[in-house]
Amino acid sequence: MDAAFRGLRTSLDAPSRAKLAAAGLNLDKPLLPAYPRDVFVEAIAIAAPAVHLTLPAEFAYRLLGRVAVDSMRETLLGWAQLALARTIGPMRALLKIGKNVRDGGSQSDATTRQIDDRTGVMTLLGYGLPYAEYHLVAIEAVLDIFERPGKLEVLSFVPEQKQLEVRVTLE
Prior knowledge:
Layout: H1 2-6, H2 14-23, H3 37-51, H4 57-72, H5 76-88, H6 90-103, E1 109-116, E2 119-125, H7 133-145, E3 150-158, E4 163-170
Antiparallel strand pairs: 1-2, 2-4, 3-4
């Protein structure tokens, strides 16, 4: 949550900040270490269109996801994860996402499996966002770290079941 909203504290107008506070995320106070999934989902739904007024919702979610990834790099935890990712390489870093999500104490889950030396499949469960774009940009960011081209293919996205399955192929 900190990464998603770190850079937005000054970008959001007063009505949007009030909506976020009513949803359980008060940007005028220090952020809590963790928030319930429902608060996260509602906060993203409020912030994405508020920050990117003229864009279709799925693109607004994508840009907000990129803000979260870029802000994460500015944190101590983000720097440590970046150093580890560079050490183990792109495919192993992508495969670690599932373990990191499970160990992160969130109400979400992720599984990853390697198909071959260039291809992996990731299934994200429990996120509950109405668009896949917020999560896809996080996977793209891993590829960006390595300046390694890759292809993302959404195999399935079922918002009602809070499930996203993505194939990642490194080039």
